[in-house]
From TrEMBL:
It comes from Caldicellulosiruptor bescii (strain ATCC BAA-1888 / DSM 6725 / KCTC 15123 / Z-1320) (Anaerocellum thermophilum). It is found in: Cell membrane. It is a multi-pass membrane protein. Residues 1-10 have a biased composition (Basic and acidic residues). Residues 333-377 form a coiled coil. InterPro entries: AAA+_ATPase (IPR003593), ABC1_TM_dom (IPR011527), ABC1_TM_sf (IPR036640), ABC_transporter-like_ATP-bd (IPR003439), ABC_transporter-like_CS (IPR017871), P-loop_NTPase (IPR027417), Type_1_exporter (IPR039421). This is ABC transporter related. It comes from the Bacteria. Gene3D superfamilies: ABC transporter type 1, transmembrane domain (1.20.1560.10), P-loop containing nucleotide triphosphate hydrolases (3.40.50.300). Residues 378-612 form the ABC transporter domain.
Length: 617
């Protein structure tokens, strides 16, 4: 049995270890100039609207940041004018005291500018961290509401990556890029306006380098973007090799495939390195190229400015301030080009987050009822079910279980036993037919109250990285320590817990990996005992349990089953023999049902199954 999530209340689907990060977030690392991801947002308007839902909560703060950006951009724009004034009014006429004042003014302005830059960075960081805090919380609580189907069909690593890496990209990029884009646009517009007022001719000459700058940058950016995207894909492959290597260590060791794994890793690693180097080389062309073009603009301004000054059209101070403007003007241009790609990848990441937020939640019927306690009568009436449309896994299943009966589900692997209990717990809803509990269609019962009355104990129990006693208490959060110990005693778990280093306070690691499978099952049984469900679903262990523990598990299971309706995915002959009803499942159908004796007498499917599996025993 495999697809039923954890013990009762269906809340502990075991997560795989995280992928090892999707590589550097755009904006970090040397290749950040062109976002490493080539991903583009699919529906920008919608994404922006939804992001505003998170960021818009801080309107006042954002307005303040915008004001600070305005002021610092203004300083940026007027500073070169002071240089002009200094040269034309004080240096050339040799008025030293005036020069001193203007230098002081410039120092003050530049210091103020740095302070404002800090304030805007700080403010934006606060806004984005708070917005992202809410987004992360929303996504996590959404995960608790989406159906098990999503966890069954999506890679767990991918889901985790959306919660961590993608949200990180949104937060880091948006906070850095938004302020930078704001200030770039204002500085750019302001600088052009002042330049035009100083000398329209010189402005046009300076602007001549802009198309050249854009054309060349774009040309290189296209190649680099492809290389970075390839780099990202290879990083993904490298991550999955590492992930599989760690998860499958036992298999690798047993088959002594360590050498193959190393070779596999080396292959991907080498490819990644080659692509990485090419990407960095290409993107490395950009800064010197920009420098060259900046200097070109400088030469144009100096040469043509000198000519215009000699002819008496402009002053020397104007040339000096123009040189400053030309530099100041190319910087935001570069910045805008850089930010464009990063912002795009932030939007793409935001979309990945919103995609999960848009997943359909478990549906609730309008006339849903809450049930307090159940007698435990269960009936399947002509139930059909398919995981994928058009491929029925359960076909016309019908059976009736009286309260307190023990039902054994038997049948070949893949026949549909797990699916039956998946449906009973409403992890999935049926296509047609009816499942009735105490005569009520389970689609009318709220999932929460239904699951409160169900207990599920799987072969492979998931335990949390918490003390043993808290893991047991998970069955009923209000249970006292004494009740926890009582439950452990009933589940035959008390003895082994006592011998753990810190007894009930021993903190378990990695889903209980430091316990044996049998011990984990005993804890799961204690959990179920504490929750005291009306209907029990048990999956008998097939392997990995020593005979002594197996006996303990068996007897705990028997105690737990007493007085409750129980469904056991049975592997042990003794369980099957004791069952009040055996459902023989084959190929998604109940092919036979009855007690052990009745079914043997039939000499049909069950008889053959029994003879092949147990006759020797
Ligand atoms: N989440 C899923 N999505 C699609 N198909 C699934 C899913 N879970 C199970 N199946 C398919 O449904 C069929 C029944 O599977 P199920 O797990 O119910 O069998 P089972 O009788 O419990 O098998 P086993 O004894 O090996 O645990 C199988 O063919 C399986 O491949």
């Amino acid at each position: 049995m495999k697809k039923v999530p954890e013990e009762r209340k269906g809340s502990t689907s075991s997560f795989q270890p995280p992928a090892f990060g999707p590589g550097p977030a755009p904006g970090r690392g040397p290749g950040h100039r062109f976002s490493a991801k080539s991903a583009k947002p699919k529906d920008l308007k919608n994404t922006l609207r939804r992001l505003w839902k998170y960021f818009g909560e801080f309107k006042l703060l954002l307005f303040g940041i915008f004001l600070v950006i305005l002021i610092s951009s203004f300083i940026q724009i007027v500073s070169p004018l002071l240089i002009q004034k200094a040269i034309d009014q004080y240096i050339i006429p040799r008025k030293l005291d005036g020069l001193f004042k203007i230098v002081l003014a410039m120092i003050i302005l530049y210091i103020l500018n740095s302070i404002f830059a800090y304030i805007q960075g700080y403010g934006m960081m606060i806004v984005s961290q708070r917005a992202v805090f809410k987004m992360r919380n929303d996504l996590f609580s959404k995960l608790q509401r989406i159906p098990i189907k999503i966890f069954d069909t999506r890679a767990h690593g991918d889901l985790m990556s959306r919660l961590t890496n993608d949200i990180d990209v949104v937060s880091n990029t948006l906070s850095a890029s938004l302020t930078s884009i704001f200030s770039s646009i204002i500085t750019l517009a302001g600088s052009i306006a002042v330049m035009l007022s100083l000398s329209p001719v010189l402005t046009i000459l300076t602007l001549l380098v802009v198309p050249l700058m854009f054309g060349l940058t774009n040309l290189i950016a296209n190649t680099t973007r492809k290389l970075f995207s390839q780099n990202q894909k290879l990083l993904g492959s490298l991550n999955s090799v590492i992930e599989e290597d760690i998860t499958g260590q036992k298999v690798i060791k047993v088959f002594t495939r360590e050498k193959n794994e190393i070779e596999k890793f080396e292959r991907v690693n080498r490819e990644l390195t080659q692509v990485g180097i090419r990407a960095q080389i290409f993107s490395g062309i950009i800064p010197p190229l920009m420098n060259l073009l900046n200097n070109l603009a400088f030469i144009i301004v100096a040469a043509s400015g000198g000519f215009l000054a000699l002819k008496g059209f402009i002053t020397v101070g104007t040339i000096a301030s123009f040189i400053q403007y030309a530099r100041q003007f190319t910087r935001p241009l570069n910045e805008l080009a850089n930010q464009f790609n990063q912002i795009q990848s932030a939007f793409a990441s935001a979309e990945r987050v919103f995609e999960i937020m848009d997943e359909e939640e478990e549906k609730h019927a309008e006339d849903e009822i809450e049930i307090d306690s159940l007698k435990g009568e269960v009936e399947f009436k002509n139930v059909w079910f398919s995981y994928n449309k058009g491929q029925p896994v359960l076909k016309d299943i019908s059976f009736h279980v009286k309260p307190g009966q023990m039902v054994a589900l038997v049948g070949p692997t893949g026949s549909g036993k797990t699916t039956i209990v998946n449906l009973l717990s409403r992890f999935y809803d049926i296509d047609s037919g009816q499942i009735l509990i105490d005569g009520i269609d389970i689609r009318k019962i709220s999932r929460e109250s239904l699951r409160k009355n169900l207990g599920i104990v799987l072969q492979d129990t998931y335990l949390f990285s918490e003390p043993v006693k808290e893991n047991i208490r998970y069955g009923r959060l209000s249970a006292t320590d004494d009740e926890v110990v009582m439950a452990a005693k009933t589940a035959n778990a008390h003895e082994f817990i006592r011998h753990l280093p810190h007894g009930y306070d021993t903190v378990l690691t990695d889903g209980g990996a430091d316990l044996s499978q049998g011990q984990r099952q005993l804890l799961a049984l204690a959990r179920a005992i504490l929750s005291d469900p009306a209907i029990l679903i048990l999956d008998e262990a097939t392997s990995n349990i020593d005979t002594r523990t197996e006996k303990l598990v068996q007897s705990a299971m028997l105690k737990l089953m007493q007085g409750r309706t129980s469904f056991v995915i049975a592997h042990r002959l003794s369980t099957i023999r004791n069952a009040d009803l055996i459902l023989v499942i084959n190929n998604g159908q109940v092919v036979e049902q009855g007690t052990h004796e009745e079914l043997l007498q039939k000499r049909g499917f069950y008889y053959n199954l029994y003879m092949s599996q147990f006759a020797v025993v």
